[in-house]
Amino acid sequence: CIDVCICVLFLFYVFFYAPWCGYCKKLEPIWHEVGAELKSSGSPVRVGKMDATAYSGIASEYGVRGYPTIKLLKGDLAYNYKGQRTKDDIIEFANRVAGPAVRSLPSRQMFDHVLKRHDVLFVYVGGESPLKEKYIDVASELIVYTYFFSASEDVLPESVTLPELPAVVVFKDGSFFTYDRESFAPSHNHTHPLLSVSKLVAIAVINEKEQNEESTRLKDLIQRVATEYRGHFNRDFQFGHMDGNDYINSLIMSEVQVPSVIVLNTSNEQYFLPQEPVNTLEQLVGFINSVLDGSAQAHGGDGIFQRMKRVAYDARSTVMSVFRSSPLLGCFLFGLPLGVISLMCYGMCTAESDDGADDMERRKWINAGREEEECKEETWNTWRPGTRDGL
Length: 391
Fold this sequence. Notes:
Layout: E1 11-17, H1 22-40, E2 46-51, H2 56-61, E3 69-74, E4 77-81, H3 87-98, E5 103-104, H4 108-117, E6 120-125, H5 130-142, E7 148-151, E8 167-172, E9 175-179, E10 200-206, H6 213-228, H7 230-233, E11 237-243, H8 246-252, E12 260-265, E13 270-272, H9 281-293, E14 299-300, H10 304-325, H11 327-383
Parallel strand pairs: 1-2, 5-7, 6-7, 10-11
Antiparallel strand pairs: 1-3, 3-4, 6-8, 8-9, 10-12, 12-13, 13-14
Helix pairs in contact: 1-3, 10-11
């Protein structure tokens, strides 16, 4: 990996870093391994890195706001990598995004093989159509999260019957669902896939790496509600689970406990938290119903106060990330400007005080001069020649 200057590129995997960033230094040896393996495998993806502090204009153009940032540049598109910082995960992302947005499933054997490898499988069935164009647009945007496929109707299992073609079919939990045409308009908000929908989103926030009884229970409850209450909530809700609370914390600008349940309204950036711990299916259903009927307390929103809070939160997060990675550099970057500003303010206040003292002294001299003139005039009037007192 070498420092690069981006110009006209087709497939380029870029690691944006800052020399002072501790996380960047930890990722650097892994990034070298990624570059070596992609090169040895004959991948068309070219791997490089860029000092975002030296090329701040280019980094800003690609929306780099923190470090480290990994982006795969594919033509005119820039895909953010937000997965685990391991070699295998980073390479898998590159292979997925570098390939076609929609992959073909030519046979039943291939379909069965892919179905076993994916928890959720999206398949377009049919020929050329406006729906296929929308499907490709969405696949191009959301390929950072999952794979998208196409197949002919005879490739699907015999149990799958489609009322009409073309269609988009989603296979999940041993069943399948047919999406209507309105479900596949591109969202263009570049967020987590759960949040790329217009519905309310009920999420179990858990820790996948350190599973405990409560995390497993909440995950199972969310899955049960999604399955057993599909007819009741399907029109208004999307259900899922999320590993860790970092993304949710940054979204709501607050701390969410792990494990816990949260409902997000992505249309107005409001969120809802249960007032009591969710221990049973009935409690979870009651909480979701309270959100649906408007009795649950809403937090957040997209008002002017929340926007100002977002600006302050982003600034604070940036400062804290700098101090966590390099405390000495943080003190230099932020302490030096504050020190200069303090000296300037002190100088201005001191100068103003000195001017005030000079003015006061000047007024004293003027007043003293006036008093002396008045004293002379009074003496002259009292002792002028020709008067009895003056003889």
